[in-house]
Amino acid sequence: MTTLPFLLVGLLAAPLLAQDVIPSPIRPLAEFAQPFATIAGIRELPDGRVLVADSRLGELHVIDFTTGKAEQVSRQGSGPGEFRSAGPLLPLSRDTTAMFDGPNARLLLLNAMGKPITTVPVASNQMLMFAAASAADAAGRIYSSVWIQPTDDRRVTDSAYILAYMVRSNHLDTIVAVRNSPVDMVTQQLGNGNSMTRIMEVPFAEHDDWTITTDGRVAVAVGHDYHVEYYQPGRRRTVAAPTPFVGVKVTDADRDSVRARRKARTRPGQLVVSPEPSVWEKVMPAFPGDALRPAPHGRLVVERSQPLASTVRRYDVFNASGVRQYAVTLPPMTRFMGAGSTFEYAVRVDADGQQFLERFVLR
Q1: Cα(39)–Cα(37) distance, rounded to whole angstroms?
Q2: What are φ and ψ of residue 103, in 5° steps?
Q3: Structure pTM?
Q4: Residues 313-360: pLDDT tens digits?
Q5: What b/e string do you get for 181-215 counting C-beta neighbours within 10 Å, with b at 16 or more?
Q6: Which of 58, 270, 317, 323 is most buried (CB neighbours < 10 A)?
Q7: Residue 10: helix, strand or coil by DSSP?
């Protein structure tokens, strides 16, 4: 007699362990009319305009959603205020934006109006870190992740350190280790008798991801149970509770899509096909790679795993404490890029491959 209530509780609770939220579609408030080739970075300026880096065209623009006008604020070159490579725009403070310029081995600093003000040389031993830098905070730290070197005979690990570099003092801190997707080391024989070794991620494997929130914390989404952890230099970490989710099953179509992407052309007319992954996962992780984006007021936007053929992206929105509040979907071929003090920004790709910057409010 005593087992029946426990059995009923177990049956009722089981579906809740795998519950998920139903996403709501949202539409942009505005889309900037001028297309870009490849939007590599954006930064909302204090006056509401947006600094945009186009890596394919090698251009830096300040755009105004209100007037529809775009102003080119720098040009390619190696002189004062110039750059040779456009990339991610890192918010060093409310009034300063940094952009790593690898070919010139320096950081280009821009002011609150998006205008170049100075350059900072980058030493050769820091080049790799700055090339991988993807975030910054208002205290002047630039963040990057680097692979942890193995201590045994393995040539690559599935772990990385998040590093914080203080530009003003030239000081480097190690924040925390995170788990990357595991990889396969594949050596292929080419048609000319040479060989090629490629590092390829195991598809649909569990991993962690990270970003810097708008209030300056390092936010890490942990893949194995989908929870968020927060870190700040000199302070202890804060860990949120796991977030229930339903995993997306890996289908034959998903596996075929991975196989197609693993093909590599070594030269015109010669096609090298990579072998099968070492493991085929049955269920996708909660989120894919490069899934986290900051949102205003310390919130997080986390992209959720979807079938590879899907053109609609789904996102979970977490509050500043790491608790999921709701979920949204964006229009087809649209992906979040980042956030300013009030708005979120996304990029829409049209049928011709042109990219358009859009402005959202996640409500």
Answers
A1: 7
A2: -60, -30
A3: 0.87
A4: 999 999 999 999 999 999 999 999 988 888 999 999 999 999 999 999
A5: bbbbeeeeeeeeeeeeeeebbbbbbbbbbbbbbbb
A6: 317
A7: helix
